[in-house]
Amino acid sequence: MRINEMFFPATSESNPEKELDFDLTDDLIFYMNNEPSFYRKDYFPAMLKFKKYCEEGKEIHPRAFKKLVSKAFEQYQNKFQVEGLKSTLSEEMCQEVCAAIHKLESENVREGHYGKFRK
Fold first, then answer.
1. CA–CA separation, 78 vs 63, rounded Å?
2. Does some domain include residue 56?
C-alpha cells in the first residue's frame, strides 16, 4: 500500500464522488441549534409550535419538520463549501433528520424545556 492510499482512499469506479467523513444528520441538527439567526428566526418558533401541539395532545408526524430541515440544509450548504456535499438533500436524508429532530424535541418537551407555553 502506498502512503497516499492510506490518507486518501481511492474511490471506486462505480462511485467516483467523494463521500462525507461526518454524519450529516448530526451536523445539520448542530447547525440548526447553534446558528444564531437560524435558531432565532426558524428553529425556536417551530419548536414552540411543536410544544403547543404536544401540550394539546395532537400527534405530530416527523415530516412536519421537512420545510425547516430543507431551509437549514440550504443555508448550511451556502455557508459551508464541503467537498462531497450534494446540491440537494435526498428524501431519505431529510426523513432521517426530521425523525432525529422529532425524537430529540419530544424528549425536550416531556422534560419541560422551552418554558411554559403562553397563549
1. 23
2. yes
Residue tagged 437560524 (cell numbers): 38
- Residues 18-42 have pLDDT tens digits of 666 677 888 899 999 999 999 999 9
pTM of the model: 0.75
Which candidate, 108, 101, 110, 91, places its Cα nearest to that of 32?
A: 101
- Determine, yes or no, domain membership for 12: no
How far is 113 from 106, CA to CA, in rounded Å?
A: 10
Residue 16: inside a domain = no
In the chain, alpha helices (H): 3-7, 24-34, 36-38, 44-55, 66-79, 91-110
Q: Cβ distance 73 to 24 under 8 Å?
A: no
